[in-house]
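Lay summary

Proteins are chains of building blocks that fold into shapes. Our project writes down both the chain and a compact code for its shape. Here are two examples, one after the other.
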Amino acid sequence: MRALIIDDEPLSLDYFQRLLREQPGVELAGKFTDPHKALAAAGEVQPDVVFLDIEMPEISGIELAKAIQQRAPQAKIVFVTAYREYAVQAFELNATDYLLKPIRKDRLEKTLERLRLDQTQNTAPPKPQDRIGQVCCFSSLQFRLEGSGKLIEAKWRTARTKELFALLLHHRRKPIRKDYILELIWPDTDPAKSVAQLYSTIYQIRKLADKIGLPLAIHNQANSYIMELQGIPIDAENWESDLLALSPLSQATLNQHLEVLDRYSGDYLGEEDYLWAEGERERLRALWLHQASAIGAFLKDNGQPTAALALYRTIQERHPYMEDTHFMLMQLYASLGARNKVTACYEKLVKMVREEYETEPSAQIQTWYENWQRQTIRN
């Protein structure tokens, strides 16, 4: 493991050099007090790790780290600082770790152990079947493996880590302001602490993405973040595109319409119950309902009442307070001669509208039901 150490204090450099020499497998490729010489060396040496003091006189360690990452993108950055609060900025740059001065030998050994583990994982042969092939947002936030299609659940460090990922995903390809994120995810937290938690959580998301094989990039733009999935599809996005691309509904295209409809496996992030996702959740629900109703009516009008009945039952489960759905089920049960089902369905409708709307079923439905009862008695 090739290492560079950069610190404007010569005594700190010498002390750190002695610590590194005691560690097996670490080659010190250079030590610098001059940040410009250090930057040039990073481009030439291409180190595996750079230990970098944050408080530099000519250029801040944060700015120098950004420049080093451009010259040596594979280099891991480990910040060295006498002030714990600088760790927040370290995580912002996706630093591997940070060390507090004075550096303890046991703490350095833990950092090197983490670096060796990352190095081993990065040099291991890639496993295509372990790469994420799709992000799933219907019902709950999950990931589908490429090749096998198997669903896996990521082990989120905290519930807020998961929610922040979902929020960035929701706003993908668009900047989302940090103050807006803080208001949503950490509304009751002290501002200074919430900023630190935000940066730490971004870091945790990046680490998790690396672990599960999800190629994403989270860019820091001024006071905003923007996340890109780098080509990984999202089930809800693909579903809507395929839905809008369908040919007009006919007997020839019926199976295509049903296949797309079936892919809606639950409301958008429905199990997560994030309030900020409610608008998108309702929009996609409305698209599904429009499509399901159109297919149900087509099946009914084309002599397939049993198939229509199954579909309208699903509509009723997902949208239980729609009077029209109850009425359609009543008509379908009547066409199939299921008298008890018609009565049960009507009674369920009466109970629903009284409890939810404090009213009675529409005059049209009441008239239809009364006429059906009279005809049933005559028969």
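And here is the second example, written the same way.
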Amino acid sequence: YAPDWIVVPNEATYSRYEAHGHPSNRIVVCGHPYFDRIRDTAHRLRGRSRTQVRASVLPGAPADRPVWVFVAELSDGLDPKQFRRHGGYTLVGRGSSDKRTDVVLEEVLDAVNRIAPRPYFVLRLHPKNDLREFTAYKNEIDDVSAGGLPEELMHAADLVIGLTSILLTEAVIMGRPALSVVPDPTEREWLIDDSLFPVVYDRDRLLDMLETAAVDPSLLVGTPVEDVIMFGATERLTVFLAKLLRDTTAGER
């Protein structure tokens, strides 16, 4: 409840703890080492052409069609009502399911089906998803990605579409365009930062964004990732811990 120090990944988290009354001089902003790992992986993958990576992870993808990856999420949580259709939804799907992810997937598929040539559509499962959850959409999905690390898939994608998954932020760190589609406008607050990519929550805007992506995905790029994500977390944390140990040795609790 009251640690001596709190190490946080960004200024927004710092502000939250400060607002709760924790001494501001006992909160240290260091970034998050996970994002450093993603950036390092992206640098390594850039040594291989995207064509090579794509052939490796998606051997069935035609060379003349863009690859769009849809990142699935669980339609459940601490408050299950938040993950089911409710009165705040501005996207309604096809009416066949009340699950949050299904509603968005249906809207995305309906928009994708209006684009020519149709992108090669890949469903990336959440680790706790079961493919049988998406049986109703199997004829509209070209490929499924499950298990393992998703970085090569992100690198191969021309566009990454999701709800509020951290994979959207990972895609941007890897230099790939991303699009967040949320059924309730208030859910944009669930994102790490909603300036990294467009966030849409109505059908017409969704189609506009996907039609834009079909022409030039780079038009969906938002705030430069370096302006949002604090990289160098491990080095920064090491400096903090070294100072803390020196101060402790000098007699501070």
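What can we say about the second shape? The longest helix spans residues 233-249.
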